[in-house]
Amino acid sequence: MPHSHVSDLRSVALNVPDLKQAEEFYTRTWLLQVAARESDALYLRGSGREHHILSLHRAAKPALRHIAFRVRSAGSLDAIAGEAVAAGGRVVSGVSKSTDPAGGSALIVADPQGRVLRFVHGDVTHDDAGETPLQPIRLSHVVLNSNAVDQDRVFFERVLKLTLSDRTRIMAFLRCNSDHHCLALADGEGPSLNHIAFLMRDLDGVMRGGGRLADAGFPIVWGPGRHGPGNNLFNYFIDPFGFVIEYTAEVQQVDDSYRTGGPEDWKWPPGRIDHWGISAPPSPQIKEAQKTIFFQPT
Asked: Which domain, by its residues, includes 200?
């Protein structure tokens, strides 16, 4: 089904004020593994093929440094650069040798709202680690808040050639491959981070992850449940620095025959906000946390 310039959501880069504390949490509690280390940065992998799915960078305050996508060809980098400018964004750093440990070529652009997007090609990957049921495999998706969802959606459709899977009253779900969505835009107060979702092998991984996080002092702030669009399982948490992170599994697989849903297709009965209906609504803590993390200015 490849129509998109983008083949995968590869990684997310976060600024954190305490790199040692961040390493402790994301390796011992969240169960990622160290792929590479620099003096002021740490690169963490899951059990899948990506060199890293999360990078942590020492900085004065928490921020979203960038979101990184892998593109389908070297030519896609030049195409994205041209489309980004034409759509009101700008090139932050032109196509050049990547500076992160995964190597390859990279392009950095900012969208019209200042969101920093990194595109890579030819980067190093690992052999799949195999059966590791309690570890995240890779990233599933990132959700970004927007005060102009449909305007921002046009940028991602035009520049990245993402496809709209579903549009609810408050969210737009966009895909680059067979996963229902790799990126979603949610109604919110400007271009902040809503959450980052990590793919687990199955329901057991999502649920046992919830228990492990609770034991470590990080209770579930929303879940367990099964979303509507995407049909994926979820448990949400807040990390030590205020980032909202999700364990998810069983993301719906779609192809070109999938009928794009609209707001009328995604209405819940009173009091229901997911398929299961067993969890309380999102907590006040998660709602507040989803307003506080912004992109690092370029």
From this structure: 138-289
Residue with tokens 């280390």: 37
Q: Are residues 162 and 275 in the same domain?
A: yes
CATH of the domain at 181: 3.10.180.10
Considering the domain architecture, whether residues 151 and 265 belong to the same structural domain is answered as yes
* pLDDT tens for each residue of 212-249: 999 999 999 999 999 999 999 999 999 999 999 999 99
98-137 pLDDT, tens digit per residue, is 999 999 999 999 999 999 999 999 999 988 666 678 999 9
